[in-house]
Amino acid sequence: MDWQTLSDKLKSLGVGFGKDLPGKPATQSRYPIDRVVCGDFEDTLFGPIFFVEQRFSLDHMHGSVPLFPSSSITTLARWARIPQVTSSAINNIVFLDTETTGLAGGTGTLAFMVGVGRFTEEGFTLKQYFMRNPAEEAAMLAALTRFSAPLDAIVSYNGKAFDIPLLRTRYTMQAFEFPMEGTPHFDLLALARRLWKDRLPSCSLSIIENQVLGVFREEEDIPGSAIPELYTDYLRSGDGRPMRGIFYHNAIDILSLAALFSHTASLLENPASQNTDQSVDIASIGKLFQFLGDSATALLLFEQSLAANLPEDIYWNTIERASMLFKHQGNLDSAIQLWQKAAEAGKIFAFEELAKYYEHSARDIQAAILWTSKAIELLDGCSNQNIHPTDWRTRFIHRMDRLQRKTS
């Protein structure tokens, strides 16, 4: 039974709402929250809860990215390991972000604002629930449950580690059933790290907004670190003016979640057709497809990135990854070309792969000995801090002993 049905039934039995019961007097202020931001009150069984709602059209752009996903979310769902969530469920996906009284979590931390959004037939609806005081938590959670139904998946940014455990605790403290328990989850922080950690200084949502989505926040934005203290001050004073910046901060977070979801869906569904001059990003997308087991797409992207101007460390990592994919495909000629190129640059992995090839595939023991001895010589004079000469040298010494026994 949903909240509205239960509410109507209780009304018919003469049961009053929490708003009709005596409660904690509101803090007197010249600047109550409903006069600071344009919102309304939603009735629940546990009293009213203040909310702000915004609606965006289907063609709305957030920065340089469309809010609505024009591509299938199939590959995105494969990455998230929830292939049962398809594009047909797009209107039942909830985008979620909380603003809290602290970052430590635990039973003493409250989510005083919960921002949620979802796509509709008309566009995108963004709703922010706000507790004027902690006594309104039950009402806020009831309203959140109502908004979240029906629910096929959640999209968040670090929500698996923070937002969802926190909300689960708050529902438990109120003796409510947690409506998001076991719901499939797209945590886009993990995906952002896979795609952009090699290029960007950080994968914080603000950096992703600037560098990937083309979003630049206005001056009224509040730094996330300042939000808990501002809410504590609000509870003391009742002055809602500083909350305006928190509403803005949370709204941009939700819109950025939707835009990032849309952007990554397109990026993963049609990776080779992306118009990007960032060769590092292309290599990173290739690594993701390698992780997904799609060798053909990974190789296509690796070759595309290698033809561009990659930083040296990423270039050789991409060479190694491409060579191993060629090897697993049985395309040893292409693999050998890359190993020889890497060996000329002193990349130790290439010596090992060439020694393996000549020992096991070409059955040329002398060539295997040659590449093994070259590797030992390289390691003896190695000053590269990224190579652990002792570990590698032990492996090559064992290989040399075995090869020499074969020759005898």
- At the first level of CATH, the class of the largest domain is Alpha Beta
* SSE-based structural type: alpha+beta
Instruction: List the helices and strands in order.
Output: HHEEEEHEEEHEHEHHHHHHHHHHH
Count of individual domains: 3
Topology diagram in text:
Blueprint: H1 3-12, H2 33-36, E1 40-44, E2 47-57, E3 61-62, E4 65-66, H3 74-79, E5 93-100, E6 111-119, E7 123-130, H4 137-148, E8 153-156, H5 163-173, E9 185-187, H6 188-196, H7 205-213, H8 227-237, H9 243-269, H10 279-292, H11 295-306, H12 312-329, H13 332-344, H14 348-361, H15 365-380, H16 389-407
Parallel strand pairs: 5-8, 8-9
Antiparallel strand pairs: 1-2, 2-7, 3-4, 5-6, 6-7
Characterization of the model:
The protein is α+β, with helices and mostly antiparallel strands and 408 residues long. It has 3 domains: 3-18 and 28-269, Nucleotidyltransferase, domain 5; 270-325, no CATH class; 346-408, no CATH class. It has helices at residues 3-12, 33-36, 74-79, 137-148, 163-173, 188-196, 205-213, 227-237, 243-269, 279-292, 295-306, 312-329, 332-344, 348-361, 365-380, 389-407; strands spanning 40-44, 47-57, 61-62, 65-66, 93-100, 111-119, 123-130, 153-156, 185-187. The chain is built from 16 helices and 9 strands. Helix 10 packs antiparallel against helix 11, helix 11 (295-306) packs antiparallel against helix 12 (312-329) and helix 14 packs antiparallel against helix 15 (365-380). It starts with a helix and ends with a helix.
